[in-house]
Amino acid sequence: MSTASETTSGGRTEVRPPPIATLADAVWGPIAVGSVLGAVGLIGLAAGQPWLFPSLGPTAFLHAEKPDQPPSRFYNTVVGHMIGMSAGMAAVWLLSASKEPGVLASHELAPARVEAAVLSAVLTMIGLSLLKASHPPAAATMLLVALGGFEPNARSAGVIVLGVLIVAVLGEIVRYVRLRWIPSPSA
Questions:
Q1: How far apart, in whole angstroms, are the C-alpha atoms of residue 78 and residue 165?
Q2: What is the pLDDT of residue 167?
Q3: CA distance linking residue 170 with residue 37, whole number of Å
Q4: CA angle at residue 70 from 68 to 73, to 5 degrees?
Q5: Average pLDDT value for the chain
């Protein structure tokens, strides 16, 4: 049974997704995302570390919703976030943006923070392209650093690295289960 519909229009075949999600999608996604983020949060609480941060949410969504896509792979997840973190830190350092208050804390956007965000976006895109590590949530990590959510220092780098590694490992489990045991909508 096909879950997508096909129509022919002017010699072209259009494939449309099913109008509603399959039960596996509707149940699996929320359970997988909630489990991954809950586990990261509990591990962080137990260790007294803020290993659960905003850019990990979209990463968990990718792992659960698009497990067969390259941005969901372990390499893309880890390398993508490391590039985003590095680009954000380099931009903040090069532009001395850390002299300005962080946007999330001050609720004010300083010109140096905007410049750091733009430079870090350019650097992130270059790095992701060169290393073939497409992972859109890395842009959120880049912005968290450029806008002052994370300071450009070793402690913040450690928090980001460990948070990303925890999500990447749990994401591989999510991907494995989804790809091996839960039928996809096109199956």
A1: 7
A2: 98
A3: 9
A4: 80
A5: 90
Query: What residue ranges do the domains of the chain occupy?
Result: 22-181
| Mean pLDDT across 143-158 | 97
pTM, two decimals, is: 0.85
148: left (phi over 0), alpha (psi -120 to 50) or beta: left
Residue type, 98: S
- Whether residue 174 contacts residue 11, with contact meaning beta carbons closer than 8 Å, is answered with no
Angle between helices 56-65 and 23-47 (to 10 degrees): 150
Q: Is the pLDDT of residue 1 over 50?
A: no
CA distances from 85 to 3, 76, 151, 162 (A): 40, 14, 10, 12
On whether the CB atoms of residues 68 and 126 are closer than 8 A, the answer is: no
The conformational region for residue 174 under phi > 0 = left, psi -120 to 50 = alpha, else beta, is: alpha
Here the tokens at position 51 are: 């290993």
Residue given tokens 């780098």 in the structure block: 157
The Cα 141–Cα 81 span in angstroms is 6
For the chain, how big is the Rg over CA atoms in Å? Answer: 19
pLDDT at 149: 96
